[in-house]
Prior knowledge:
By secondary structure, the chain is α+β, with helices and mostly antiparallel strands. The protein has helices spanning 24-36, 38-46; strands at 14-16, 52-54, 91-97, 109-116, 123-129, 137-142, 149-155.
Amino acid sequence: xxxxxxxxxxxxxxxxxEPSKFELPDLLKMDEWLRDDLASFAPVIASSEDLLSWxxxxxxxxxxxxxxxxxxxxxxxxxxxNKEKTEAKKKYxxxxxxxxxxxxxxxxxxxxxxxxxxxxxxxxxxxxxSVEGCPVKKTVERDRxxxxxxxxxxxxxxxxxxx
DNA sequence: CGAATTTGACCGGCGC
DNA sequence: GCGCCGGTCAAATTCG
Length: 163
């Protein structure tokens, strides 16, 4: 249970799985892990040899709801050490080969924004859990190198029961 | 009719 | 100090 503390990947914010390893069914399973226990999920992914680690250096989802009290986004220049706060937000991104970006993971998502990033010619879609009180956010974006791949980033854990 | 979706505009933070 | 980028919200529209 507390083994996750020793987990080196804890410092990483994003995890990319090989599309060959992670398919739609796997994605669903992943969600279960997130729902059940985030710690249990990380080690599993880490076991993947094809896993690519991505350092989302720069920032974190600081604003969760301008009107609502948000977490303290301590801006630190030296984050080379390790975790910042126990409540630090973690993002889990997965690259999956799919024609459609809307991968049904069983949960209901409500799109709340679409933005075009400079790094990618394709727009990025922002989804949020339809269930109120659920801090889970999902961002879907197409791979800039391979448009046939879809990058789904999950953030947060579901506060309610699964689908 | 209700709910979900769409697009645009606004805001905040960081960088230089 | 200003500019840039990314992210979010709001209102309007559309669909079921």
